Amino acid sequence: MSRLVVVSNRVAPIKAGKVAAGGLAVGVYDALRQAGGIWFGWSGDVSSTPQTSTETVGNITYVTMGLTKQDYDQYYRGFSNATLWPIFHYRIDLARYNRQEYEGYRRVNAMLAEKLKPLLKPDDIIWIHDYHLIPFAEACRQLGIRNRIGFFLHIPFPPPEILTVIPPHNELLKTLCFYDLIGFQTETDRLAFQDYMTREVRGILESDGSLTAYGQNFRAGVYPIGVVPDEIQDLAESYKGRTKPMRRTTDVSRKKIISVDRLDYSKGLVERFMAYQAFLERYPEHRRAVEFIQIAPTSRSDVKTYQAIRQQLESQAGHINGWLSDLDWTPLHYLNKSHDRRALMGLFRQADIGFVTPLRDGMNLVAKEFVASQDPEDPGVLVLSRFAGAARELTSALIINPYDCIGMAEALDRAMRMSLTERKDRYEHMMRAIRAADLDAWRDNFLRDLRAFSSRPRAEVPS
Ligand code: ADQ
C-alpha cells in the first residue's frame, strides 16, 4: 500500500503514542497508522526564526514548522479566519477582505508545499485538510509534484452568490481544481461547489460524474465525517464512577441540558441563550426542574468578532442567572474551560437533552457524540439545528431552526416531556445512522476514492 501524507493546519499533539484530541485527529491518526507516512503542518509556534521539527513515532513521522508573525497574521488570523471562515459559514456581515492577507495566505501555502516536496516519494498519496490549505495542490503542481492529492473541506461550502463576495474567488477556486478529489460533508455543499464550477466558470459536468474546469479534470464527492461509537460508549460508561463533581455543583434530581462548542459565532450560542431564556419565561413549570450547562472554551480570541461574541454571552449569562437564580438553583452554568474527552462523553451521558444549535456547521461532531454517549435503556433527547451537516443523517433528532427562538423553546419543552418509548425509538434510529457513517467509513471511503486515481501525467502539471 502506498504511504499516506496528511497535511493539516495543525498537527494534533501526540501523548504517549496517542492523539489527544477527538474527531478529525483520531480519524487521520488511524489512517496514518495503517498506511504509515507523514503528518505535516504548522506547529502552532510563531517566531522571527521559525523552526522545523521532525519526530518519528512507529511508522508515522510528524513534521511541524513554525510561522513568522507576518505569516500568522496574514495566513491564519487574516485570510483563513477573518475572510474564509465567516464567508464559508454564510456570514458576509462578519467578513473582511485584505489583499495583503490573501497574498500571505498564498505565500504560506507555497512555502509549505516547498518544504513538503523533498519528503515525498513518487507513489505517496497526499490528503490535505480544510480551508487553510485550499491552494496547496496548485502550489504542489507548480513544483512538479504529480502524486495523487485529495482535499477534504470540514466546513460548509457556500452558494456561489455568497462565495463571489471574496474578490479573488475565481483565482482561489481555480486552485481547487488541481486536486484529484475534493470531499465535502454534505450533498448541499457538493452541489454548491458544482453550481459554482458549472455556472460561474462554465466548467463541465462530465458523463462519468467528474468535473472539468480551468483545463483540469477532477472529482467531487460527499464523505460525511463520523465518530467511533463504541469508543464513545466506553468512555461515557467508564466516567460513571466519577459523577460526584458534577453532582455537587448541580442537583441530580433536575434535568440537565448540555451544549459543548468552541466559542464561535457559527455555533449559535447567542441565539441558544435567548431560546433558553424564552423557554424559562414561557414554561415556568420547568423552572427549578432544569439546569443548562454550556461548555465553551474560547477560540481564536485574537480575532475581533470572537471578542465581541464573548462579551455578549457573558452579559446574557449574567442576565439569566441574575433574573432567576436562587441560593439552591442556578439555571445556567456557563464554563469557558476545556474538558477532556472522557469527562465530556460522561457529561453527555448524564444529560437529558443535548442542545446543538449552530447557525451553520460543516458536520458538528458534538451532535453525534451526544447520541453515541447515551445509555440505550434511558437515552437523552437531541435537539439539533437543521443547519448542521449532522441534521442530514440524524433525522430523528428534534430538528429546530436556530433563528426561531420560540420554536427552540418549544422543542426544549417537548424534549423535557418526551416518553421513554419515544426517546428510545429516536435514539435507535439515530444510532443506526451513526454506525452507518462512522469515522472508519469517512476515512476509508475518501482514501479508497483517492487511491483509485493514478499519478498525473507530466502534461497536466502547470508550469
Ligand atoms: P469544530 O467547529 O471544532 O470542527 P465539532 O465538529 O463540533 O466542531 O467539534 C470537533 C471536536 O471538538 C469534537 O470531537 C468535540 O467533542 C470537540 N470539542 C468541541 N467543543 C469542545 C469543548 N468545549 N471542550 C473539549 N472538546 C470540545 C470542524 C467543523 C465541524 C466539523 C469538524 C470535523 O467546524 O463542522 O464537524 O470540523 O470535520
UniProtKB/TrEMBL annotation:
NCBIfam families recorded: trehalose_OtsA (TIGR02400)
Pathway(s) per entry: Glycan biosynthesis; trehalose biosynthesis
Keyword Cell division part of the UniProt annotation: no
Pfam families, A to Z: Glyco_transf_20
Species of the source: Stutzerimonas xanthomarina
Family: Belongs to the glycosyltransferase 20 family.
Name recorded for this polypeptide: Trehalose-6-phosphate synthase
Protein task: Probably involved in the osmoprotection via the biosynthesis of trehalose. Catalyzes the transfer of glucose from UDP-alpha-D-glucose (UDP-Glc) to D-glucose 6-phosphate (Glc-6-P) to form trehalose-6-phosphate. Acts with retention of the anomeric configuration of the UDP-sugar donor.
Taxonomic path: Bacteria, Pseudomonadati, Pseudomonadota, Gammaproteobacteria, Pseudomonadales
Top-rank lineage group of the source organism: Bacteria
Subunit and interaction comment: Homotetramer.
PANTHER family, sorted: BCDNA.GH08860 (PTHR10788:SF106), TREHALOSE-6-PHOSPHATE SYNTHASE (PTHR10788)
Keyword vocabulary terms for this entry: Glycosyltransferase, Transferase
Catalysed transformations (reactions): D-glucose 6-phosphate + UDP-alpha-D-glucose = alpha,alpha-trehalose 6-phosphate + UDP + H(+)
CDD domains reported for this sequence: GT20_TPS
Protein EC: 2.4.1.15
